[in-house]
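Researcher: I'd like a structural prediction for the single chain below. Treat it as a standalone chain; there are no partners to consider.
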Amino acid sequence: MEESDNVPGQAEMPDVTADVVHLERSGANMIRAEKVTVSQGGVNQVFANEVRVEQGGIAVADGDNLHVQDGGVALARTNSLTVKDGAVAFAASKRVILSNSTAALVVARHADATESHVSVLLAGQVSGTVTTLMDTRQVAVFGLLAGLGIGMVLAASRLFRRR
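Model: Treating it as a single chain, here is the predicted structure.
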C-alpha cells in the first residue's frame, strides 16, 4: 500500500487573491490583496497595501503598511512597519516603530523604539529606548575591520604561496 504525501486531516494552504482578506484561526500560502487582516493565523507570503496581524505570523510581508500586535514576521519589506509586543526577524522599511518588541535586523530611514531589542539596527534616525547588539556606527566599524582582516589574510596567503 502506498503512503500518501498528505497527512490525514491536513489540508493544503490555499493561495488567495481579493480586495480584502480576513483570516481568523486559519492560514494561507500566498495572499495578494489591498487589505489583509490575520487573527490567530499564519500566512507564508502577503503582498498587500495594508496588513494587520494580531496573534499570528507571516513569513514574508511585502507592502505599504504592516501592523503586528502579539505576533511575528520573518521578513518585512514595507514603507511603514509597526510592531507591538511582537517580533520581526528582518525588516527593511522607511519607518519602523517598535514597542516592547524584538528584531534581529532592521534597516530603516527612521526607527522609533520603546523598550525594544534589536540585534543589528541600521537607521538614519533613531528615537526612543532601544537596546542593540550593533548600531549603524558599530556595523560600519565592524565592516571596515572585517574587510581589513580578510584583506590581510589574503595578502599573507599570497606571500606564502610564492615561496
